[in-house]
Write a structure and sequence with these properties.
There is one protein chain. The protein is mostly beta strands and 115 residues long. It contains no helices and eleven strands. The strands form two sheets. Strands 2, 4, 5, 6, 9, 10 and 11 form a seven-stranded mixed beta sheet that branches. The chain has a four-stranded antiparallel beta sheet with strand order 1-3-8-7, with no helix packed on it. β5 and β6 form a beta hairpin.
Amino acid sequence: EVQLVESGGGLVQPGGSLRLSCAASGFTFDDYAMNWVRQAPGKGLEWVSAISWNGGSTYYAESLKGRFTISRDNAKNTLYLQMNSLKSEDTAVYYCTGGLGYAYWGQGTQVTVST
């Protein structure tokens, strides 16, 4: 059974940092690029970042460059998203996703940026 389990979300003040993790199982993790996608309250899905199968290439939504860093540890089957200088508009449920055609999704982790 394929599982993607996100963790690390929570409540943080503007300007703060969080590190999200996504633990993968049930498929060959290092066969696939992986992504982070988010959904803000009342809005649609927004692609955040992607990383190639070996971590050699990374991609970011233009508005997030310089604040977010995606990484992966294939030995641990884990994907990460380091988020710095968080803003209220970063409030969303964050999902990790991967596989052919984004076939695999986690349940999401809530990130709330607020005073």
